[in-house]
Structure formats: C-alpha cells, structure tokens
Specification:
Elements: H1 3-22, E1 53-57, E2 73-76, E3 82-85, E4 89-92, H2 98-110, E5 122-127, E6 131-136, E7 142-145, H3 152-159, E8 170-174, E9 184-188, H4 190-196, E10 210-213, H5 217-243
Parallel strand pairs: 6-10
Antiparallel strand pairs: 1-2, 1-5, 3-4, 6-7, 8-9, 8-10
Helix pairs in contact: 1-5
Length: 245
C-alpha cells in the first residue's frame, strides 16, 4: 500500500473509531423520562423564572389595564424574581406557577376592589426563558423554547434532520442536576418512529435536555477528511498564489 493510499485509509479508521466512541447511551436511562400520557403538561405546572414575560389580566382593575387593544398588563420578571404594580406592590413570582401568582394577586386586590368570579385574576405566560437544545445534523439547530409540552418526536420533527443525519442513532441527553454528576443518555431510532409508528421512545423533554443528531458514518468520514484537508488545500492555494508571477 502506497503512502498516498495509507493516508485516506487511516483517516477512515480514525473516523470510524471516533464515531464508535461517541455513543455511550444506556437503554435504561429512558426510565427517567416521562411519557406524554404520564404527566400533566398544562401551563398551570409551568414554573416561572426570570426573564419570563407574564400578562396579568383582571376585569375592571384600572392598574391592570393597558391602552389600545392589549388586554391586561405585561411585565418581564426581574432578576430578583419579582413583578410590581402601583397599588398591589411587589409580587415575588419566581418559583411559582401562573395559578399561584394569580391567587397572590387576587388576595391583595380583595382589599382594594370588589372582585367577582371563581378566578378573578388570570396570569398568562407570554414569552418563556426556559430552553432545550437540538444540535447536530439538523436544518434548525440551537436553543428552542421549552413549554413543557415538547416530546422527542415533536422536537426532532421541528428541527428537521438533514441528509447527513444518522436518524437511527439520535442521542437524547438529560444533564445531571448535580454538578459533575453523570448525565442520562439513551439512543433513539427516529426513522422507526416515523416509518413504523414506534412510539415507545417518544418521551417528554425537560428544561435543559439536549438532543444530538449525529452524522452517519460516511458523512462523518467526509466531514473529518474535509476538516483535515481544508488547511492543506488552503495552504496550497496560498502558495500557488504567492508563486504566481
């Protein structure tokens, strides 16, 4: 085997070995993920935190009205976890769900106004700060807004795996809540989910979860070879340009 033949061969061996080492998933780790049917995913269970944006609505309460067509008053939760109103005062909302915040505000308004109805105050989450992540061979990678309703199927479908994606070896990663602790990782066969309707791996995501869509073996080899040869080719082009009369 000539030196020219050995180099590409070694690149292939290194790439395949690297790819094989990337998959450290444990099938049992899926047990920490809830199925969509096992959890209440209503917005009442959403835990507020800065810089979430909330709208507080109460009929006939002057300080909770806004001009124009907007309903209620919208505020961004401050870094200290609070929102504030002129007569109601400061309300610590971080760590609470919308219904709990509505109850706190209702209790304060009772002393100022005559409130009617079972739920006279409504708190709605407008813009959320919680995120999950989809990275790798997808058309729409990056941080995505977490609402509590996302599943592996909906998240991957929204990200759109590209032609280089290894759809049978997608990794779902739940980082440990303990600093330095081991993450929970399981492999997901997205191809069988969409082609055969196998939904046993369609689980609910949590804030901070990461979905990694790896390249296929051949795509990874091509990407690795490209990364190795790119500086060489750039150097050769620069040298040729320098040597040109």
């Amino acid at each position: 085997m000539t030196a020219r033949q050995i180099v590409p061969f070694m690149l292939v061996i290194v790439s395949v070995s690297f790819i094989a080492g990337c998959f450290s998933s444990n099938p049992e780790d899926i047990q920490v993920f809830l199925k969509p049917s096992q959890a209440d995913v209503t917005m009442d269970n959403y835990i507020l935190q800065p810089p979430d944006e909330v709208t507080v609505i109460a009929s006939n309460i002057p300080e909770l009205q806004s001009g124009g067509s907007q309903v209620g008053q919208t505020q961004v939760i401050r870094p200290d976890g609070k929102i504030s109103f002129e007569n109601i005062g400061e309300v610590h909302v971080a760590g609470k769900n919308p219904r709990q915040v509505a109850k706190i505000i209702s209790d304060r308004l009772i002393a100022l106004y005559k409130l009617t109805g079972e739920h006279p105050v409504d708190v709605r989450v407008e813009n959320q700060s919680k995120l999950y992540y989809v990275v790798g061979m997808v058309q729409r990678p990056g941080a995505q807004v977490f609402t509590g309703r996302e599943t592996t199927l909906s998240a991957i479908s929204k990200a759109i795996p590209n032609n280089l994606a290894w759809k049978e070896k997608i990794q779902v990663i739940r980082p440990s809540s303990i600093p330095g602790g081991p993450s929970k990782v399981f492999a997901l066969d997205f191809k069988s989910m969409v082609e055969q309707g196998r939904m046993e791996q369609n689980v609910l995501l949590q804030e901070g979860d990461v979905i990694y869509v790896p390249p296929t073996i051949f795509a990874s080899i091509g990407l690795t070879v490209g990364e190795i040869l790119s500086p060489v080719l750039q150097g050769a082009s620069a040298a040729a340009a320098f040597a040109a009369p």
